[in-house]
Amino acid sequence: MNQVIEFIKSDRLKEKPDLESLGFGKHFTDHMFILDYNKVQGWHSPRIVPFEPLVLSPSAMVFHYGQAIFEGLKAYKTNDGRTLLFRPDKNIERLNRSCERMCIPPIAPDLVLEAIVRLVEVERDWIPNKEGTSLYIRPFIIATEPYLGVRPASEYKFMIILSPVGAYYSGRQLVPVKIYVEDEYVRAVPGGVGHVKTSGNYAASLYAQKKAEELGYDQVLWLDGKENKYVEEVGSMNIFFKINGEVYTPKLNGSILSGITRDSVIQLVKDWGVPVHEERISIEDIFNAYKNGELEEVFGTGTAAVISPVGELKWNEHKMLLNNSETGEFSKKLYETITNIQYGKAEDKFGWTKEV
Ligand code: COI
């Protein structure tokens, strides 16, 4: 069923932030999208309304049992003034996979896409046009039913908010990050929810992230939750290793998030004729490759992080310094290729961008 999106324009438009100091996720646009769910009406009443605080019952189930999921994608401004989204269909597919695992009713993909497109159109003036900046799109769903028994809620809100952003790390793109390999705490276990984008995964990561930061590291590299041996993912991104001219990344195993940038990088690298291996990778194998001088580059991939070179990996007493802690040529080439597609500067031969 086609639903008409109502629009209530804000009468208090905000001042736009300074593009030099955008950072990540600090500023929000003038409007947001809301869609409600209840058992009688299903998903209903789509609307774009002024960005403002929500009124929820303190007994809303999301506060107690964490039934919440989210997505992240970006809108880019091209040099000739067009607006491009990057693979929104993939985010929408993943949103519905997260819904299924978290017992949230799925939403018609066409309605989600229309909501994203309409909201971005309304907020077009908020898309920053300085290099390395974009408009981050954050769709999310929360359980709103007021109830304290443990079961899937019968009422939800799906919302989309927008935030003009710069680099996720350190205010600058392509600055190598330092990563701490976590060998005590785990992020996800087989059969759990690590493969979907549910808020609890991020809450569970905070303790180890805090510990890593206290030790001077930017992010945690998680090992598998069963044997604590195999590389899984980094806090906010998937991870890749370039070893002896070939590229390796952990195979999606049910506890790793299937990143859309991860998938795009795999397709790009294969297209360049460089072999890509998606397989189980032990941290010991990575250390051995390092000792033998075969570990050429390590980088993370994510919507927020784009391509993020890793300058140092710390595992137990071992410190692996990569590429003199400088951005490697391969990471740089990938960053340039993918961002050139995203900003409409290069041919989009995979059909990844959608003009809005
Ligand atoms: C994204 O890259 O969009 C993410 O969702 C990571 C986020 C936790 C900052």
UniProtKB/TrEMBL annotation:
Q: Which Gene3D superfamilies does UniProt cross-reference here?
A: 3.30.470.10, D-amino Acid Aminotransferase, subunit A, domain 2
EC number(s) for this protein?
2.6.1.42
| Molecular function GO labels | branched-chain-amino-acid transaminase activity
Q: Which cofactor does it need?
A: pyridoxal 5'-phosphate
Q: Its catalytic activity?
A: L-isoleucine + 2-oxoglutarate = (S)-3-methyl-2-oxopentanoate + L-glutamate; L-leucine + 2-oxoglutarate = 4-methyl-2-oxopentanoate + L-glutamate; L-valine + 2-oxoglutarate = 3-methyl-2-oxobutanoate + L-glutamate
Among CDD domains, the record links this protein to: BCAT_beta_family
Q: Which residues form a coiled coil?
A: none
Q: Name one Pfam family in it.
A: Aminotran_4
Q: Which UniProt keywords apply?
A: Amino-acid biosynthesis, Aminotransferase, Branched-chain amino acid biosynthesis, Pyridoxal phosphate, Transferase
Pathway membership, UniProt: Amino-acid biosynthesis; L-isoleucine biosynthesis; L-isoleucine from 2-oxobutanoate: step 4/4; Amino-acid biosynthesis; L-leucine biosynthesis; L-leucine from 3-methyl-2-oxobutanoate: step 4/4; Amino-acid biosynthesis; L-valine biosynthesis; L-valine from pyruvate: step 4/4
Keyword Mitochondrion in record: no
Q: Which family does it belong to?
A: Belongs to the class-IV pyridoxal-phosphate-dependent aminotransferase family.
For this protein, the record's PANTHER family field holds: BRANCHED-CHAIN-AMINO-ACID AMINOTRANSFERASE, SUBGROUP IIII AMINOTRANSFERASE
What name does the UniProt record give this protein?
Answer: Branched-chain-amino-acid aminotransferase
